[in-house]
């Protein structure tokens, strides 16, 4: 497992030191670390290998060795792990209220609540986006769930942009991050879908049930569901459906 600190984080710390906000920034990074620790603990409990952890100024990204077609419940547990980590930090902050200065107490509380609130946004790569996508996978096929998630992500980005304009708070970094993440999500779409289908061809997975498709097309394949297509007393399995031209 590799721990990486993005160069922007170093730059952010230097700017904070020069501007006299170093302690506030360090407090924010501590909250972020607890958030990521929540994910890490859940990943370890579910026994998935961690490839790397990268710390950015306003969050972290954990790369894990896990297939897309793994259990959706595992994805949900990993997704909410970050909030559990912050709740633990919030709990200790309240317990230690009289042992730390009121300023840092308020800072920890505010940063904790802010990051929890921000992660509710349905914007990639925030936890809210991932949790929404996992829940959609219970109802829709993987490809359709991806497109719905992409659509809702776009709506959220546009709404944030409109709100920033309305309240005259044109925060360039926030706007850049929102639109950059949206473009990144669109860019990797074909790779993610190809990976999903290739995994179904070359790996064995846990399936909750068997389903017969109404249409002979791979875009209707669901996670955790083994699919077949029946036509004129002829049954096509998943491999034939995926390989169909």
How many H/I helices? 9
**What is the rounded distance between the termini?**
40 Å
Order of strands, main sheet, comes to 1-2-3
User: What structural category arises from helix and sheet content?
Assistant: alpha/beta
Strand tally, please? 6
Q: In terms of per-residue confidence, which ranges show pLDDT below 50 for 5 or more consecutive residues?
A: none
CA-based shape: elongated
Query: Helicity, in percent?
Result: 55-70%
Strand residues, percent: 5-15%
SSE order, one letter for each helix or strand: EHHEEHHHHHHEEEH
Outline the secondary-structure elements:
Elements: E1 2-5, H1 7-19, H2 22-45, E2 50-56, E3 59-64, H3 72-95, H4 102-118, H5 127-139, H6 142-166, H7 172-187, H8 189-202, E4 209-213, E5 225-231, E6 234-236, H9 238-243
Parallel strand pairs: 1-2, 4-5
Antiparallel strand pairs: 2-3, 5-6
Helix pairs in contact: 1-2, 2-3, 2-4, 3-4, 3-5, 5-6, 6-7
What does this structure look like?
- The protein is α/β, with parallel strands linked by helices.
- The chain has a domain at 1-119.
- 62% of the residues lie in helices and 13% in strands.
- It has helices spanning 7-19, 22-45, 72-95, 102-118, 127-139, 142-166, 172-187, 189-202, 238-243; strands spanning 2-5, 50-56, 59-64, 209-213, 225-231, 234-236.
- The strands form 2 sheets. A 3-stranded mixed beta sheet has the order 1-2-3.
- A hairpin with a 2-residue loop joins strand 5 and strand 6 (234-236).
- The longest helix is centred in the middle third of the chain and has 25 residues, at 142-166.
- The model has no long low-confidence stretch (mean pLDDT 87).
